[in-house]
Amino acid sequence: MSAATMNYSKARTAERSIGAILVDAGILSPQDAERVLQVQKSEGLRFGEAGVRIGVLTEADIVYALSLQFNYPFLPTGPNKPVSEEVVAAYKPFGVEGDQIRALRSQLQLRWFNAPGKRTALSIVSTSRGDGRSHLAANLAVSFAQVGERTLLIDADLRNPRQHQLFQLESGAGLSSLLAGRVHDRAISFIPGIPGLAVLPAGPTPPNPAELLGTTSLDRILEQSMATFDAVIIDTPAFELGDDSLLMTRFAGAALAVARSHRTRAKLFSNMIGALSDVGAPTIGTVLVDVPTTKAKSRLRHSA
């Protein structure tokens, strides 16, 4: 979809009423919409208030419709979720964790994506599996797309991929297929309900992930991605498993490092930061998850 088409689509959405948006989304039936309109007219209420009054809408439904009117899309909760609930930003961008993700996105926009000599790619790195790296990468990608940034999330963890599970994509072609020259742009999937968000899953697990990531094809793929998208978020393998994360971060230009409270080993984390610096990829910030406080579960700390 071209930028002009996307902008026209957004304008058309903003012009539509809340009722039309909810009917099109399948949240409200045409019959119930008519009932709401009758109550709205007879009692002098707003459409959403009338829908809640007669029990056919919830406050969450109203927030969802308003988000589309104001070009801040997120997914409605329901029985058939197109994205895993772990991707909190896709369903509850204004909740506590959603607020933290949005605050982190704003910091990254200021410190990296909108800084002088603007870059469009960023690697998310951590020392070990289970540190929350893939979870954070997925939520950040959604958050960037929600503010109108054309965003590509690349799952470069060819050893233990997760993004195809989080976004419920078929485990078919992906980054490994592109690197092997087996497919072209058909490996990229656009996520329904989150305009501007695309995911390049890891693809079939290769026997030689480090060698595959070291091919010249990776340069071409990332260059094309950065030329096409406003933000490219790269989910990398755990640092302790090999040099894969260093290869990806060197191409991206910088890293956001993730550590888990009471889990990540300080020595290994320090070694990772040093190794990234050695390959010319600075760490622009760190995120500590599962912070043992009642005020927040994650934070961004700027690294000099």
Automatic annotation (TrEMBL):
Keyword Nucleotide-binding assigned: yes
Stored Gene3D superfamilies: 1.10.40.70, P-loop containing nucleotide triphosphate hydrolases
Main EC class the enzyme belongs to: transferase
Record InterPro entries: Bact_polysacc_biosynth/exp, P-loop_NTPase, T2SS_E_N_sf, Wzc-like_C
GO MF annotation list: ATP binding; non-membrane spanning protein tyrosine kinase activity
Domain of life of the source: Bacteria
SUPFAM superfamilies cross-referenced by the UniProt entry: EspE N-terminal domain-like (SSF160246), P-loop containing nucleoside triphosphate hydrolases (SSF52540)
UniProt keyword annotations, A-Z: ATP-binding, Kinase, Nucleotide-binding, Transferase
EC id: 2.7.10.2
Spans through the membrane: none
Protein name: Polysaccharide biosynthesis tyrosine autokinase
